[in-house]
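Hello Y.,

Per our agreement to keep a running log of every chain we model this quarter, I'm adding this entry. I've kept the format consistent with earlier entries: sequence first, then predicted structure.
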Amino acid sequence: MKYVKLFLFLSTFLLSMQLLADNKYAVSEIPSQLLENAHAVVRYDYLKFETKGDHKGTKTFKYAITILNENGLYYTHVTVPYDKDHKLVSFVGKIYDANGTLIKVLDAAEDIIDMSNIPFGTLFTDSRVKIADMLVAKFPFTIEVEYIQKVKDLLFFPTFLFQPNNETSVEQSIFEIVIPEGSSFRFKEFNFEGKLDSIKEGKVLRYIWTETNLNAFEDEVYSFPFDKSLSRIITTANTVNFYNYIGKISTWEEFGKWVSRINDVDRELPLELKTEINELVKNASTELEKIQLIYKYVQSNTRYVNISYNIGGLRPQPPSTVYHLGYGDCKALTMYTMELLKITGIKSHYTLVKSGNSNTDIHISLPSFQFNHAILCVPQAEDTIWLECTSQTLPFGFLGSFTDDRHVLLITEKGGKIAKTSFYGVNDNKRFMTAEIDLQKSGDADAKLSFHYKGLEYDKVDFDQLIEAGNSYQKDWLYESLELSSFTITELEFKEDRKTVPEANITMNLDIKSFLSSGSHTMYFRPNMSLKWLNIPAIDSNRKTNLYFEDDYQDSISIVYTVPYGAEIDYLPSDKNETSDFGEYHCYFERLEKKVFRYTRSLKIHKGNYPPEKFNEYVAFVRKVVKADKELVILKKT
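Predicted structure for the entry above:
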């Protein structure tokens, strides 16, 4: 009898263990706080990176994500890239229902697509990708993905994000690096509040970072980019052997020397090209003029094409190849421009940069490969000229928000040198409108408008491309952009001044319908016809994140209004002046003649990162601006 009881106990125990294993992803097991503000929950995320000291490595990925609603469905489109340097050893996908019961295992032949991975604008690449759509008709459900990559040549140690975004909570996230005893690497943590374990096991060292119970959170308006506020870690090697290019990279100087060896291609240019360039600049009176002529030559005779091959996509094509083909990627076009300048005796530096919006930058305290783009630095006696060599339309010396105000690495004869690209301040970034508006007794208006854009405001509108687009497209753009209910453009002209901080003007004549609203004895209108605050934030006493503005800018308008026959000015609002830590606002009404007045309005916003407790002060400032912008001018019928 005792054997029967033991058998029943063991059977029950094993069955319970199996049920626990089967139900490891049951939604009921998710802590309630992780469901708040979440569209998905990472149940488990694990990346192990192991190298044996031979500049090769293995990456093991395993993660499980519970999809709570349709806003989390993007996780179900699983992509696993690979190439000859990142061999895909295995790829397994499983799907579980809400109870944590396994309902599907991906079939390699039927459920996984293998295809070339060619990004837009790319001509050559050997990259491929495996794709699987892991969808289930009923929410919630869980996907589990596991794959292993063998890395041929180590240059890029992993960067690990413990929480993928603010709409996804995390139960457990683990990042592990395994290296031989005696080896070393460097790392930098950001917003990491978890646990780091360093373990010696035989002849290997294991470093394990663990984060648990990371809550999802709302993406608050005007907050610092959420990917900068999440827990993450960057790691890098101290030495590299990439395609047999061996070097130290623990300092920026060393890193630059290693890049110089990668860039050691045949730079000899054809004799006919040297003759052409010397002829091009022979009448130039200054070095600056020579640089401008050569940059224009590159823009007119080449185009950008991404080429992701040749030493892992890091080595430029030879300049002679760019000359013969008429195209190249950022590396090749930058080196080509550098060699053209060298023909005329002008020195420049190939420059690595991390491109993107204005809050993108590298971490200068961690020398490593953090770059995705190349530009050219041309030192001058009084200033530095930065050239974006991939654009056929960008004004000379202007970088725009894609590469402005950030640290870059100059590749010099002595190695790498950190520098910083151009910063465009509040006096560089302006949008200004002037107008003369004749009001009609019918309620319509005849208007002459002029819009002026400068610096990053020019860049936001993509004026370099808008100018090239032609009159028809320009009109369509204005009909969509101007905040008027009904109007007709009768005359239109676009002009630009392609300076290092470029400027552009749009002048136009408009027939505006129903500009005035009318009562029995009055007519009235809002004088601020152009610049309106579109996003008015609400008071938030529980603000969690900092208030962040990535750029300085200034908006101004000046409009002269003429009152129609049969009416006179009855009421003009009072002047307004509001000043805060975030910026300043001014609004003035000036009576020029009996039937003529000028309306002037200006707003400056300062670039900055402010603590959460300042948010409601900012809201109060915005509300004062909005209230002033909504005030009406009243005309009395006579």
